[in-house]
Design brief:
Number of strands: 12
Number of helices: 11
Largest sheet: 10 strands, mixed
CATH topology of the largest domain: TIM Barrel
Distance between the termini: 34 Å
Helix content: 25-40%
CATH architecture of the largest domain: Alpha-Beta Barrel
Length: 374
Amino acid sequence: MAYARAPLPLVFDAPRRGKPPLHLADLDPAGRRAAVEELGEPAFRARQLAHHYFVRLSNDPAGMTDLPSAARDRLVSALLPQLLTPVRAAQTDKGSTRKTLWRMADGALIESVLMRYPGRVTMCVSSQAGCAMACPFCATGQGGLQRNVSAAEIVEQVVDGARVLARGEVPGGPGRVSNVVFMGMGEPLANYRSVLGAVRRLTDPAPDGLGLSARGVTVSTVGLVPRMHQLADEGVPVTLALSLHAPDDELRDELVPVNTRWNVAETVEAAWQYAARTRRRVSIEYAMMRGVNDQAWRSDLLGDLLRSYGDWGWVHVNLIPLNPTPGSRWTASDPADEAEFVRRLQAKGVPTTVRDTRGREIDGACGQLAACDK
């Protein structure tokens, strides 16, 4: 079965648009101290400013009474500029799932999704405006890539979610963000520098960052093998999620065009090496498409491939019922076929679950984010 696809550009390239304003969250603590000193203030003001942003979740100079009144506006203007402007918000699941459309300073659009579950809150963030990976079943990939998102623009998506929770605007009362998944718009590892910077800001202890556990952060990829190896050596034990979607090259070449650069064997090998180096279990993401990739023999092939690396618990398969996108020719698998796919994987000793999809009604689920302002 053949599918039309757009040509795959160089995966690490992104169009040049307006450069986002410099923000405190783009800088590490040393960089912040240097920036504050350039503004004529003592270096320790950087830590005070970071406390307001990462702990108090504030960028309002009026409340920064520990800073000299003459310096507040100048520091905030220089290091806490507004990066994201809300365009539209939508809710479902009785308000516990919220999708926000953001306009960045240069007009580019991205979306983020907050999902509150019993016992945890997950923020799904975008790392690029659009995506160059051209996966034909994903709404984001059909619009092409506009630009990379800066580290601070990524962090601000999470900070906004934290503010909403702190104000008690999500059913369930005041709360905090516990998990962040880089599964919104874009291919995170194609924007490696910004994504890694955002991960460090999210996991740096307060007040240098938000103080989230690295184990609560998941970075997804369609399989940019060199970057997967690089991430394994960074010393940040985030969960790696590999969007595989097919266990054979013939089909994966069509569903995930980057497979023509790094094939299934190379990609799964890199995922295994990530698990071996970090001792963090890798998640294999697999969107279930009726009559396309949900055959029983493909389940067996996937199970054999993953088990070929041993049974020490290095991997978990996360099946995703395909979410509808405008004009898509594909539909979700029949429940019986899905159940048989799960049964065969589990019979081979591969831990497998089916994702509890959130946000489908507001086009906020996996593969649906398109950042349309109409």
